[in-house]
Amino acid sequence: MFDATNAEISKALVTLAIEKTLLNMGKPVLDEVAHRLFKNYKCYIPDCHEHPEYLKSVLKELYGNCYNNIVESIKKTLDEFSTKKSIEHFLMVISE
Amino acid sequence: MQTNLELPQTKKYLLLSILGTGFIMMIANFVGQDVTMLTTNLLYVPVPGALLVLSIIIAARFSVKGEHGRAWILFVGVAASWFVAEQIWLVYDLVYEIDPFPSAADFFYLVGYPFLFLFSIYYLKPLKNAISKKMLAYASLTAVTLLIPLLYMAYGIDSEISAFELTLALSYPIADAIVLIPALIGVILFFRGEVNFLWSLVCVAIVLNVVADTGFLITSMNGSYYMGHPIDMLFLWAYILFSFGVYSHIQIFKKHHPHISTQSLDDLR
User: Fold this and answer.
1) Cβ B264–A46 below 8 Å, yes or no?
2) Structural contact between residues B121 and B182, judged by C-beta atoms closer than 8 angstroms
């Protein structure tokens, strides 16, 4: 049986929220964000759970001032889990 | 989208295309009216054609899934219907040598407008938080201010034209006024620094197209319009701006090796 830790569950939730939001915009958007995360920081989307600033920087690079709309969408998806400490930290950093 | 993806090379080619088209039309106007008519008609093949090809490429890249995808599918509708309209106009003008108004070209021109309006809504959707009610009010007021005198002018074109022709003539300023609202919002967002220049090109192109349409209506009314009139340069420039706007999106959302994007949740399994 697979026993996931709290941190792993949070990581999966954050990853799903990011991927869902970006896929709603279009597959090439998800691909481009993933590509830039890897190119700039050598990281993948799940790593944004520990490094939300990477995602924020890539979204800003791609969408400039309106990256906030994407952040809002991610926040909305994660709303019911926002009391979890690590998710709260993720949301706080990308919203800053 | 005030990003750092300004693509300087793209801007250089845009300027060259604008200057090149203007230069060709200027030379043709110096040579004579027949050459002007032929040159302008022929320019309406590659210029809207390039837009159609580019819009198909971006739509295929995004497919129907997602908000961007839906927006670009709608844009293919605009590019395709206007391309067909331009070719019908060319055949009427160059082959049959008859007045293309009213003709099937008008049907295709007008079909493009609902697509363009819906596209611009989807295009602006990611920026909805940056759009204020005041901005919407300014854009609407400008569109209505432009619409009233144009409707008045279009209504007084010629008392001998049929009700159908009159309705057709009145349809253009109405359609222009409707698409002008989201386009102006896009331009305002550019001046406020919310979006970058290449992103705003599509909106600038819509505004330029509306200006060209207005000029076309006025010059047609006073009888000064001929194929190759400087007003046609504005129509061609609008197509070029649209094309570069689409091209900048193709450049930004390039195809990448799939291993990067798929390596996400797989890591957690």
Assistant:
1) yes
2) yes
Residue A58 lies in a domain: yes
Query: pTM above the 0.80 mark?
Result: yes
Taking only the tens place, the pLDDT of each residue in A44-65 is 999 999 999 999 999 988 887 7
Alpha carbons B148 and B254: distance in angstroms, whole number: 44
At B194, the amino acid letter reads: E
Percent of chain B with pLDDT over 90: 65
Residue A64 to chain B, least CA–CA distance (Å) = 4
In a domain, A32, yes or no: yes
Q: Is residue A1 part of a domain?
A: no
Q: Which of B213, B203, B211, B206 is nearest to B106 (CA)?
A: B213
pLDDT, tens digit, for every residue of B143-168?
Answer: 999 999 888 887 766 667 788 888 88
What CATH number is given to the structural domain containing A83? 1.10.1200
**Which 7-46 residues of chain A touch chain B by CB within 8 A?**
8, 11-12, 15-16, 19, 23-32, 34-35, 38, 44-46
For A:53-72, CB contacts with B below 8 A are 60-66, 68-70, 72
Residue A6 has a pLDDT of: 79
Report which of B93, B88, B91 is spatially closest to residue B111, judged by C-alpha positions.
B88
Enter the ipTM: 0.85
Q: Does residue A13 form part of some domain?
A: yes
CA–CA separation, A30 and A41 (whole Å): 16
The residue segments making up the domain with residue A37 are 6-95
Question: What pLDDT, on the 0 to 100 scale, is given for residue B118?
Answer: 97
Pick from B68, B196, B265: CB nearest A25: B68
